[in-house]
Design a protein that fits this description.
The chain is an alpha/beta fold. Helices cover 38% and strands 15% of the residues. Helix 2 crosses helix 3, helix 22 packs parallel to helix 24 and helix 23 crosses helix 24. The longest helix is centred in the last third of the chain and has 18 residues, at 425-442. The protein is elongated. The termini are far apart.
Length: 550
């Protein structure tokens, strides 16, 4: 007795289809699962046995062999419980085979969907009810791309899978529901999600730049960083408002597009971080890991399963590293490559997985152990060697990858006591959104050409967007586009040349200055980079000399 049906699993943020082959014979009772299952999949034998019995069916006293194909890829997770259980029941002829089902055009049509064009997923409890799974969105995208017509998933995951148009996502509550649906004895309507409604009223509440008194220069730098997607470093004494300012950056960032939201949701779904009532992440992530984090937790990794790290969970959002020198140096150094490549490749002995990591890095730090080096109001008590050792925890190559460096001084009494309201996040966000729109139009033709070069499969183009070179903001520009869109007049070239010589800036810093200057010009809706724009961009590199150059 033999049956075959289809499930799926994830590899990175993408999915692959798994054939569930089940064979029953009359040898001594046994139950084995082959095809590189991990311990969770192997444990499914006990869950499946109990679920079948508690659903009212007799578990066969036969030798049961379940093969998960392709057999050379490791299968992980508990989502194979439901298809394994249904495979056993199909082998017992308790599920109607496809050849006995009529097509919709047949006069005696019975509404019984074909198993051969259905992907089945779900973790079983011992009583036969279904628990949620991870990676449903990625699996729905893969199922659609491979031509499957429907997806059977736990009811709690249905709205996530239904984000994908062109495939029916059937919400299942228990094993009996799945059996009755596949036999045509029960009709279950596909889940429907209004994606537009999910984005309504999703603005970040609770914090606002209107709460921040003074710090006009710092707010200006943050606005520029948000407008161009630039990395930013805030340096200043304790209590000057660095963390307060950083936590308000998400309130001025542009809203997520649907493509960005889907890609972000895929990462969080694979990581198992979507809440039960959350189908789609509609606000930009803000991740703020503690400084005791390990390098594997920051970039991703693991022993039995490679999971996305904080840099991937911050994809299309903000990664905030508070008290930057307190992070272990090896942890900070692993940021260098993903800051350049916008994705992270994690390699282990038996596998290599890539996760997207296009995030805006926001860092804050004190200038010395006591925090008052360079403070106008309080003298520093640190020895020169202590200051040097503290600052040396931030390497030159990492500092070079941060576009904007800002000195944050303590707010004076007059600014604190000023009753006039500061500019709100909403007002700043309007300017940021308008500036990002200029950049989208600038790179529109380039992105269209990239899309044309892809395979033509819109699903694959969407899932691999982080690797195909799409450019939506100034910070993403490669050297070729910097030369095209950041051209300087003779006066500006001379200013930048003098700054390079005086400050000893690297070629990377040169490109960062041009990108920031382009963003400043965009904020003013200027088609050309003027002298004032390049001067303002250069001043954001002065702290290299103030703190690290001495």
């Amino acid at each position: 007795m033999y049956s075959k049906l289809f499930a799926a699993s994830t590899y990175g943020i993408d999915a692959f289809i798994v054939e569930i082959e089940t064979h029953l014979d009359s040898a001594l009772p046994a139950f084995s699962v082959v095809g590189l299952p991990d311990s969770t999949v192997r444990e499914s034998r006990d869950r499946v046995t109990a679920a079948i019995k508690n659903t009212g069916y007799t578990f066969p006293s036969k030798r049961i062999t379940v093969n998960l194909a392709p057999a050379d890829i490791k299968k992980e997770g508990s989502a194979f419980d439901l298809p394994i259980a249904l495979g056993i029941l199909a082998s017992l002829e308790l599920l109607m085979p496809d050849e006995e089902k009529y097509s919709p055009e047949h006069p005696d049509y019975k509404h019984a969907p074909y198993i051969s064009d259905t992907i089945i997923l779900g973790e079983l409890s011992l009583e036969g009810t279904l628990r949620p799974i991870h990676g449903c969105l990625s699996i729905a995208l893969k199922a659609k791309a491979d031509g499957y017509k429907r997806l059977l998933v736990p009811k709690i995951n249905a709205s996530e899978g239904a984000l994908v148009d062109g495939i029916d996502v059937i919400p299942i509550e228990n094993l009996k529901d799945a059996i009755d649906y596949l036999n045509g004895d029960k009709e279950i309507a596909p889940c429907i999600v209004d994606k537009v409604k999910l984005f309504e009223n999703k603005s970040i509440t609770g914090v606002d730049f209107a709460d921040v008194k003074g710090q006009a220069a710092v707010k200006r730098a943050i606005e520029i960083a948000a407008a161009g997607g630039h990395n930013i470093l805030l340096i200043g004494p304790p209590g000057s408002g660095k963390t307060m300012l950083a936590k308000r950056i998400p309130t001025i960032l542009p809203p997520l597009t649907l493509d960005e939201a889907l890609e972000t949701t895929k990462i969080h779904s694979v990581a198992g971080l979507l809440s039960n009532n959350e189908a789609l992440i509609t606000t930009r992530p803000f991740r703020a890991p503690h400084h005791t984090i390990s390098d594997a937790a920051l970039i991703g990794g693991g022993v039995s399963k490679i999971k996305p790290g904080e840099i991937s969970l911050a994809h299309h959002g903000v990664l905030f590293l508070d008290e930057l020198p307190e992070f272990a140096k090896n942890v900070l150094e692993v940021l260098r490559q993903p800051l350049e490549d916008k994705f992270i490749a994690i390699s282990r002995t038996k596998m290599s997985i890539e996760y997207p990591a296009n995030f805006m890095l926001v860092c804050s730090m004190n200038p010395c152990p006591c925090g008052h080096y360079g403070d106008k109001n309080k003298a520093c008590t640190c020895r020169p060697q202590q200051i040097q050792n503290y600052l040396s925890k931030i390497s030159g190559p990492l500092l070079d990858r941060i576009d904007i460096h800002v000195d944050v001084q303590a707010v004076d009494f007059n600014s604190m006591s000023n009753a006039a309201p500061a500019e709100s996040s909403e007002k700043i966000r309007e300017r940021v959104v308008a500036t990002r729109q200029i950049q989208i139009e600038r790179f529109k033709e380039i992105n269209a050409a990239i899309t044309k070069e892809l395979t033509g499969n819109s699903v694959n183009a969407q899932s691999n967007q982080y690797k195909t070179g799409f450019i939506y903001k100034n910070a993403d520009m490669p050297a070729k586009l910097i030369r095209e869109f950041c051209q300087l007049n003779q006066a500006s070239q001379k200013i930048l040349s003098n700054a390079m010589d005086k400050l000893g800036l690297s070629a990377r810093a040169h490109d960062k200055i041009l990108k920031v200057a382009r963003t400043i010009a965009d904020l003013e809706k200027s088609p050309d980079i003027l002298e004032k724009h390049i001067l303002e961009a250069i001043q954001f590199r002065g702290l290299d000399q103030k703190y690290w150059g001495e």
